[in-house]
Amino acid sequence: MGEEPWTTVGPRKRRTRRGTTPKPAVAIPAPAPAPSAPSPPSPADIDRLLTTLTALRASFRTSAFGRALLAHATHALSRHGGAASAAVCVGLGSAARAEASLRRRSLAQLACFLEVASAAGVGGAGRVVQDPAFSAADEALFGALGVRVVRAPRAREWVARGGAVLFAPFLDGAVLLRDVLPGVDPLLYVGCGDLAEMRYQPFPGSDVEQMRAVASEFMAGRTEIKITKEFEPDKYIFAGLSLYVRSIEDDEET
Ligand SMILES: C[S@@+](CC[C@H](N)C(=O)[O-])C[C@H]1O[C@@H](n2cnc3c(N)ncnc32)[C@H](O)[C@@H]1O
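Above: the input record for the complex with S-adenosylmethionine. Below: its predicted structure, written as tokens.
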């Protein structure tokens, strides 16, 4: 297994002079088979994902992490009339990955996103997701949920319209600061903790000082609420996420 198939091409049959050595057979690799297209997701696959997602939404609502996050989010949103214009998720990862623990991780984060969107009064295609890792199965899952899938970098436009909720579960800091956060002002942001103090690995050619400036600008007038409670079914899925809300003084000015 794993070895390339080989075709052996022999020398043309011809008389050889006595004393001369016949040329050895030359082995050339057979052309590689054309890559087969991944088989489309079956309705049964999508049903299985939906069933797991429904169970994870229920677990999320009753978990210590979920209750704390939803309580803080609802409280913060109540200062803005209780509803958001859109809910945007960037960097979920594929919920249809082959590896079961990673699949469950993305499904649990999707459950969190849908619960936060619901708490913010956002449903249907006002829920927007973006991740280049999404597969056809993810797209079918989002289609069944009525969630809008956009290609990078379109998600940022939804946040930039104002009044949105942004969820970026463990999105690389450099992508967050280069492609998502510049110039946006979401009502709520759920993402990696310690945004103000993080040290970023710059992309080649990117300006780390500029990224730090984006982080500082984003944090000005915003308060970080660390959610230290656990998601009991798997404490590692959300560990390290914080909720960032507009500071109260900032709200009072608006
Ligand atoms: C560190 S992984 C986190 C995945 C998942 N949230 C988790 O916690 O397991 C970062 C994710 O960000 C995605 N990503 C990278 N660039 C992105 C972009 N421009 N827009 C959206 N997602 C992006 C990657 O495909 C990957 O799924």
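Notes for the reader.
The longest strand covers residues 241-246.
The chain has one domain: 44-253.
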